Amino acid sequence: MHELTHAIPRFLEQHPGITLDLTISDEPVAAPDDKADLAIQIGTPAESTAVVRHICNVTRLICAAPAYLAKFGTPHTPDDLHRHNCLWITSLPALRRWSFDTDEGIRVVHIEGNVIANNAEMVLQLALAGVGITRLADVIVGEPIHRGLLVPVLADWNHAEAVPLVASYPSSRNLSSKVRAMVDFLVAEFSHAPWRQS
Predict the structure, then answer these.
(1) Phi, psi of 52 (to 5 degrees)
(2) Distance CA 76, CA 189 (A)
(3) For the segment 73-123, what is each residue's pLDDT rounded down to a tens digit?
(4) Are 163 and 43 in contact (CB under 8 A)?
(5) Dihedral sign computed on CA atoms, order 187, 56, 31, 7
């Protein structure tokens, strides 16, 4: 997560005695295990015995690189996506179903594409390279959109539901001062969703 990468130097400056060992995965996490003190993820863990602390809400945006839109055109309705190359994260199959607001209610479109990846960073890089259209959390695409590297599409149609960004840790383990420091830092840094600021 780009925003976390930007924030870590500030955390280490505030807490020079803490050492971080980061593992990045887009696989859903039920709860941190014995090897992890803390998990940060988009979406609340399912059936988890972990303690969960809400950091902020994110929303998913549909976007593409200007070069892709110049070459293949801009979709104006959800049906137009059937004529476009769409990118999604294979480890989260639900993200292949894009939700849209219509006069009849929410409509779901099952998207297709010729490249898939199990990692949001790879999907982001493919979108930036002009390979296709993607729908990723604003915490991931906010900066590229502000820089003009990606352009939102179907914004009037996109069903922008709030998705929680949470930190979780095992309920069976006493909360250490290091984990508490990280969680408090994340809430302070991200609760106001700085990636939405222009």
Answers:
(1) -115, 130
(2) 36
(3) 999 999 999 999 999 988 777 788 999 999 989 999 999 999 888 888 899
(4) yes
(5) negative
CB-neighbour burial class of residue 75 (10 A; exposed 0-12, middle 13-18, buried 19+): buried
Per the CB < 8 A criterion, the answer to whether 151 and 68 are in contact is: no
Is 53 in a helix, a strand, or coil? strand
In the block, which residue shows the tokens 């780009």?
2
Identify the H or E element spanning 145: helix 138-146
Q: Per-residue pLDDT tens for 159-196?
A: 988 889 888 887 766 668 888 898 899 999 888 877 77
CA 75/CA 176 separation, integer angstroms: 49
| pTM for the model | 0.84
How far apart CA 92 and CA 123 sit, in angstroms, is 12
Residue 26 CA: distances (Å) to CA of 14, 16, 41, 113, 125: 28, 28, 9, 19, 15
- CATH 3.40.190.10 is held by the domain 60-152: yes
**Sole residue written with tokens 């990606």:** 150
Tally of CB atoms within 10 A around 110: 10
Domain spans of the chain, in order of start: 60-152
**DSSP 3-state of 110:** strand
